[in-house]
Amino acid sequence: MAIDYDAWAQRYDETRGVSPSVLGPLLAALGPSAGRSLLDIGGGTGNYSVALSQSGFRITHCDPSAGMVRRAASKPEVGAAVVADGQALPFADGAFDCAVAIKVLNHVADRPAFIRESKRVLGGGPLVLVNAARETIEVNWITHYVPSLLGQERFEPEAATIEQLEQAGFQVEVSHIRYTDMADGSAQALKRFPEALLSEERIMNTSLLSRLPEEVRREAFEAIRRDHESGRLREVIAEYQPLSEKHGDGTMFVGQV
Prior knowledge:
The protein is α/β, with parallel strands linked by helices and 257 residues long.
């Protein structure tokens, strides 16, 4: 099920923000800001653009959705905000010191092209990607209720992303995000706070769950609520916990030029 991102922009910030669990590792990977130029690729409504600007980076924000860009441009901390697809960026070679793409890669049709374009517009680097890899999805207890998520090709193994980055000329470091908050409202964060998934507003404001056919989503929502009330949900979560701790709630790929 496709998402109308222009329409989603109107309600995105109601439950989606900046997670300290992501921002801390992100800043550590980027290194000192010191006025460095940063491209936020697929930056949505600009929440991370704002946080990175407040940390000292000079931000250029881009997203293929005009609605998302309008919302981002309304935030004073966001610098330039441009409608642009990460697979064909309208920027000069080496235009930016570094770049980020947070929760973007799973929505990209041509990932090698996206990575090549990111490399092209970078000067010193790095490129930092944060997304859900196949390993992350497989250990997410939500898949107990929505097993069809396991078959979605958009969730590639970590090794595939590493290979694509290396083929583009990056040296790659990998680490894992572990949420201690649900500030960014993503399904990967909400799995740590299962009561939040009893809110249909939150479910519909995550790309993982809002993409599902209505019937599948409704059945999953009802089953989670039923198991929460009976106590069974705690048992389901416990079954996934060991591997979840190993693979985390998301993967951070740092590509050094």
